[in-house]
């Protein structure tokens, strides 16, 4: 029997809605064909100023809070002036398939997309191959409301008002595809680039430094030592990238054809995000005990082999029930570490890696990961309720993961995952400090399916979906939940 204590009176920290953020890179069919069908490209698909209506509607339903763009590795080769105005030079997308990038989707199109989605843009600047002036001017172009060379250029291109873009990344993976830098060299560069990324009017920038990959705690330490300690006002966020890769990088494993051993490896690797978040936090705490610098996990998710027959540079993969479990595990980790984790961005929104949406011409399907975002949206901006979990063991790891929150209307939501593919897990939840009146209503939602490999296809788009869940019983202040094998559940108490 699993035991969960939810401390209903101890909520202090808000779970930032930005934890449920997204990432869209110029990679494969994420932007082109995924979000953007403008400029006559697949123009038969209903769109608003070139942006697919079906995609916008779907992402609005999950309350998408932010969208990171244009990369990824692409960001450090992207020169933003190529993507504005009527004359747009082409470039080679050297990172992703060597295809020609025609720059038809640029700053105006991205910020229009964010406005249609009702989400905050998060722009990642070019540090690897761009100049300080280039990044500085991009901020001026987006945010300055007065008369200036960049504001005038923006107006000439049809946009009078500044967009007031708050989130700016100063480079991406600067230790790798973003310039192959040492942490010391990057820290110095961060200070230069961040220094000239100016606040205009009332738009105070939230500047995000490139952080570590996986368990590279030295990178975090050097950044905190050489940036935060000496120039605390320059940095608001420090990123972390961690992908769930079941195999090694040459044989990552199939997205849909896998056995139980691979299921467990995937779950264990997803659960390792907890270690990464906690240990990077410990390093950050040493320098920043007040937790002023937010951890920004701006790339996370599963990374499998591409679907057979697709371009290896496009990173197109299917998405099964296993991905929904991975998403649920990550959300529980981020919720439970809400004191430090300010933002997270799944890689990537459409047609790339652990997508929430897949498209095929005019068709669109929602993946099991989409349904996990839908289920967990109740935690956005709610107050975290601390949890204490005693979980049964399965294959050498915890069968259950959990997190909880209370929203503005005093509704309690408890989210649970059961990675056990063969057995139900019963969880006795003690709602400590909560006097439950007889009128309290308990409802639930679940994502599960018969087989762990089940996934949605264009022919069968609803094979894995969100359903009502009722294996719940309430007695005094204990709620007993029977979690079916391989399931993600959220319970609501009103
Ligand atoms: O998301 C795909 C790639 O993974 C990104 O471009 C890069 O930042 C990371 O290595």
Give short descriptive properties of this protein:
six-stranded antiparallel β-sheet, globular, alpha/beta, 494 residues, 9 helices, binds alpha-L-arabinofuranose, 27 strands
Measured distance between first and last alpha carbons: 25 Å
Bound molecules: alpha-L-arabinofuranose
Q: What's the shape?
A: globular
Beta strands, count: 27
* Major sheet attributes: 8 strands, parallel, barrel
Percent strand: 25-35%
Mean pLDDT across the residues is 97
Helix content: 10-25%
Strand order of the largest sheet: 2-5-8-9-10-11-12-13
SS class: alpha/beta
Counted by DSSP, the helix tally is 9
Low-confidence stretches: none
What is the radius of gyration? Answer: 22 Å
Q: What secondary-structure arrangement, pairings included, does this model have?
A:
Elements: E1 2-7, E2 21-23, E3 47-48, E4 51-52, H1 53-61, E5 66-69, E6 91-93, E7 99-101, H2 107-117, E8 120-125, H3 132-143, H4 149-156, E9 167-170, H5 183-195, E10 206-213, H6 217-228, E11 237-244, H7 260-287, E12 294-302, H8 321-336, E13 341-347, E14 357-360, E15 363-366, H9 368-376, E16 383-385, E17 387-390, E18 393-394, E19 397-398, E20 400-406, E21 412-418, E22 425-432, E23 442-447, E24 466-469, E25 472-475, E26 478-483, E27 487-493
Parallel strand pairs: 1-22, 2-5, 2-13, 5-8, 8-9, 9-10, 10-11, 11-12, 12-13
Antiparallel strand pairs: 1-17, 3-4, 6-7, 14-15, 16-20, 18-19, 20-21, 21-27, 22-26, 23-24, 23-27, 25-26
């Amino acid at each position: 029997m699993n035991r969960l204590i939810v401390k209903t009176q101890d909520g202090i920290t808000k779970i930032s809605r930005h934890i449920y953020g997204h990432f869209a890179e110029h990679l494969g069919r994420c932007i082109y064909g995924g979000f953007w069908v403008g400029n006559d490209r697949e123009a038969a698909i209903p769109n608003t100023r070139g942006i697919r209506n079906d995609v916008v509607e779907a992402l609005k339903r999950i309350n998408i809070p932010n969208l990171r763009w244009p990369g990824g590795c692409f960001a450090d080769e992207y020169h933003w002036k190529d993507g504005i105005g009527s004359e747009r030079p082409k470039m080679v997308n050297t990172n992703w398939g060597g295809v020609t990038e025609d720059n038809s989707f640029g700053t105006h199109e991205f910020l229009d997309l964010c406005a249609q989605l009702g989400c905050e843009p998060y722009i990642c600047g070019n540090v690897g191959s761009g100049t300080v002036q280039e990044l500085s001017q991009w901020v001026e172009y987006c945010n300055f409301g007065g008369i200036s060379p960049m504001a005038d250029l923006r107006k000439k291109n049809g946009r009078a008002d500044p967009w007031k873009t708050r989130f700016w990344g100063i480079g991406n993976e600067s230790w790798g595809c973003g310039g192959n830098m040492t942490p010391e060299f990057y820290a110095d560069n961060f200070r230069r680039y961040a220094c000239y990324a100016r606040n205009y009017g009332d738009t105070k920038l939230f500047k995000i430094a490139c952080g570590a990959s996986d368990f590279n705690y030295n990178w975090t330490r050097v950044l905190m030592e050489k940036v935060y300690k000496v120039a605390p006002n320059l940095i608001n966020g420090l990123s972390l990238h961690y992908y769930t890769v079941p195999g090694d990088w040459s044989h990552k494993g199939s997205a849909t054809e896998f056995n139980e051993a691979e299921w467990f490896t995937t779950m264990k690797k997803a659960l390792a995000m907890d270690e990464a978040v906690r240990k990077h936090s410990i390093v950050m705490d040493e320098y920043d005990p007040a937790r002023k610098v937010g951890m920004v996990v701006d790339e996370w998710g599963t990374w499998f082999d591409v679907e057979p027959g697709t371009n290896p540079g496009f990173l197109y993969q299917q998405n099964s029930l296993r991905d929904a479990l991975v998403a649920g595990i990550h959300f529980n980790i981020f919720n439970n570490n809400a004191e430090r984790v300010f933002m997270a961005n799944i890689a990537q929104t459409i047609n790339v890696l652990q997508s929430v949406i897949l498209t095929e011409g005019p068709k669109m399907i929602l993946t099991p990961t989409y349904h996990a975002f839908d289920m967990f949206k109740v935690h956005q901006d709610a107050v975290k309720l601390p949890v204490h979990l005693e979980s049964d063991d399965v294959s050498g790891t915890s069968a259950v993961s959990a997190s909880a929150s209370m929203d503005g209307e005093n509704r309690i939501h408890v989210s649970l995952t059961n990675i056990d593919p063969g057995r139900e897990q019963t969880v006795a939840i003690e709602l400590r400090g909560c006097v439950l009146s007889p009128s309290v209503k308990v409802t639930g939602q679940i994502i599960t399916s018969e087989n762990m490999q089940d996934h949605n296809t264009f022919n069968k788009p609803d094979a894995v979906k969100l359903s009502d869940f009722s294996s719940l019983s309430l007695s005094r202040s204990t709620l007993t939940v029977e979690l079916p094998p391989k399931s993600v559940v959220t319970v609501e108490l009103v």
